[in-house]
Design goal:
By secondary structure, the chain is α/β, with parallel strands linked by helices. The protein is 35% helix and 18% strand. The longest helix is centred in the N-terminal third of the chain and has 18 residues. One of its GO terms (biological process) is L-proline catabolic process to L-glutamate.
């Protein structure tokens, strides 16, 4: 796969004119999939792709083009039409055109709930077609390199999510309830109400799944969203929007912007969306929370832990799950296993040697290990070296750069790595922040604990800042009860087959312990993030017979 991608990549021609509308005319739609404007495996330095913006129902370019380099070889292979601060007004106007009561709600244009059920049906069918799913799988691989199975899993979850909201399921999201009143003619009704103009900002690591699930949730509830996806991977969502348009999505229902963070921040301040969903780093999340006066839902960084309980079972299986959780997608999942607590009973097994063997079979040629898009090689290895200065710590495996590759230096490329740090050292104030720093790459910290030290482990969980996913690997019900009852993480897997990653569309995925926390994928998540509660109290009368004006109160 890698050789195929690299052989097809060459330097971008400088002779093309990116300023004319002709560069993105209808002649772009000449590919085997009617909605597509690119061939996934042809995107390369010799045949660069273009990514446009969508605003007020029209695909538009920009005077500024951001060149994205191929994460496998450094060639310029995608040109993104990025909007700068002078070009945000059409997006501001589009947001402002949507009233606070939304595009539809239970009292306004209810037929749109049915329309979105139909769109979901058609889009789910499209993604179920092998030719279409393969297109998106390979396009994901080109911009966020991961194994074919990992990329396909993202397409599969997206397709199943859309299946879940076919037919009447969209209007069921807006189901209301009624409570009898105090007298004849009075009833209170609770409704799920849209926010109206909203914004969605999503990261690079899941170019299809995260933006589609959040976008459709926003649309289902009657909102008008502007969507920004990390420019490194936004080509995937541009193509998905074209698919959705072919399935009946009105072109004016969604705006799609490519920009840098500063420009997007200005758009949010001027466009004043009623709610913004942000998935990404904690630093940006906290800035947005302040700038937008709390009108945010966040799924930020995840420093995710796994605890292996005292009961030892299925050693090979547990080792395999630990390898998948820590190193699949090169560790670039917000749910990736960051810290593994092993009970002393597990320390006596061959688990670590098996984990080492599994990690070392990962290779660049099939993208089971690959480029790290937000952390450089030097930064990751510097973190490893700092941890190795802690007394009692040791390198279990990895800790070296990948070899024989052409990954550009702006990205990271290291072997799957694990560092052991003693529990008592982790808990020291001078070490705790360092050990629990999230490294968004193929890296984890491993420690062990004794029966008498479970309370110390639980103290460590309490001190952590991020509470996204977790795993408690044990079939001991009393152990599970103790750990689950004294922890917080919003998506916690428990039992022998517990994992931290691989969230499908059939359960909630999101953090807990933060009033701003966002969920994704389920009816509960959609209603929480993309609607608010509105109460309408009907009071028809009649006024009681012989009623008289009472004394003042």
């Amino acid at each position: 796969m890698l050789k195929l991608l690299v052989n097809r990549a060459a330097r971008v021609s400088t002779s093309r004119n990116h300023n004319g509308f002709a560069a993105f005319s209808f002649s772009r739609c000449v590919h085997s999939l009617q909605f597509a404007t690119v061939e996934a495996e042809e995107v390369s330095g010799s045949k660069p792709a273009e990514v446009l913006n969508l605003v007020q129902g029209k695909w538009v370019g920009s005077s500024k083009w951001n060149t994205i380099v191929d994460p496998l070889n450094g060639d310029a292979f995608i040109n993104v039409a990025e909007v700068d601060e002078t070009g945000i007004q059409p997006f501001v106007q589009s947001l402002s055109s949507c009233p606070k009561h939304g595009v539809h709600n239970p009292f306004k244009a209810p037929e749109r709930y049915l329309m979105y059920g139909d769109i979901s049906t058609k889009a789910a069918h499209m993604l179920s077609l092998p030719k279409v799913s393969d297109f998106f799988t390979r396009l994901i691989q080109r911009v966020s390199p991961k194994s074919y199975q990992q990329a396909f899993g993202e397409v599969y979850v997206t397709q199943k999510f859309l299946e879940n909201f076919c037919g009447d399921q969209v209007r069921f999201l807006a189901r209301s309830f009624a409570v009898p009143g105090n007298h004849l003619g009075q009833q209170s009704h609770g409704f799920r109400w849209p926010y109206g103009p909203v914004a969605i900002i999503t990261p690079f690591n899941f170019p299809l799944e995260i933006p589609v699930l959040q976008l459709m949730g926003a649309l289902y509830m009657g909102n008008k969203p502007v969507l920004k996806v990390d420019s490194k991977v936004s080509i995937v969502m541009e193509q998905m929007l074209r698919l959705l348009h072919s399935c009946g999505l009105p072109v004016e229902d969604v705006d799609f912007i490519n920009s840098d963070g500063k420009t997007m921040n200005k758009l949010l301040l001027e466009g004043n969306p009623r709610m913004t969903l942000f998935t990404g780093s904690s630093r940006v999340a906290e800035k947005l929370a302040v700038d937008l006066k709390g009108r945010v839902k966040l799924e930020d960084a995840g420093f995710d832990w796994k605890i292996l309980g005292p009961d030892v079972h299925q050693e090979d299986y547990i080792a395999w799950v630990c390898d998948q959780d820590a190193y699949a997608c090169s560790g670039q999942k917000c749910s990736a296993q960051s810290l593994l607590f092993m009970h002393e009973n597990w320390s006596k097994t061959s688990l670590l040697s098996k984990l080492k063997d599994l990690a070392e079979r990962r290779k660049l040629t099939d993208l089971t290990i690959g480029p790290v898009l937000t952390v450089t090689t030097d930064s990751m290895l510097e973190h490893v070296n700092k941890l190795l200065e802690i007394p009692g710590s040791k390198l279990l495996f990895g800790g070296q750069p990948l070899e024989d590759h052409s990954i550009p230096s702006i990205y990271g490329a290291i072997k799957p790595t694990a560092v052991y740090v003693p529990l008592e050292e982790i808990m020291k104030d001078k070490n705790f922040e360092l050990v629990t720093k999230e490294i968004f790459g193929p890296f984890q910290v491993i420690t062990d604990y004794k029966n008498s030290e479970l309370s110390v482990v639980l103290d460590a969980l309490e001190r952590m800042h991020n509470h996204l996913t977790a795993a408690v690997v044990s079939n001991d019900p009393l152990f599970l009860q103790e750990v689950i009852g004294k922890s917080v993480n919003g998506t916690t897997y428990a039992g022998l087959r517990a994992r931290t990653t691989g969230a499908p569309q059939n359960h909630w995925f999101g953090p807990a312990g933060d009033a701003r926390g966002a969920g994704i994928g389920t009816p509960e998540a959609i209603k929480l993030v993309w609607s608010c509660h509105r109460e309408v109290i009907y009071d028809y009368g009649p006024v009681p017979k012989n009623w008289e004006i009472p004394p003042s109160t």
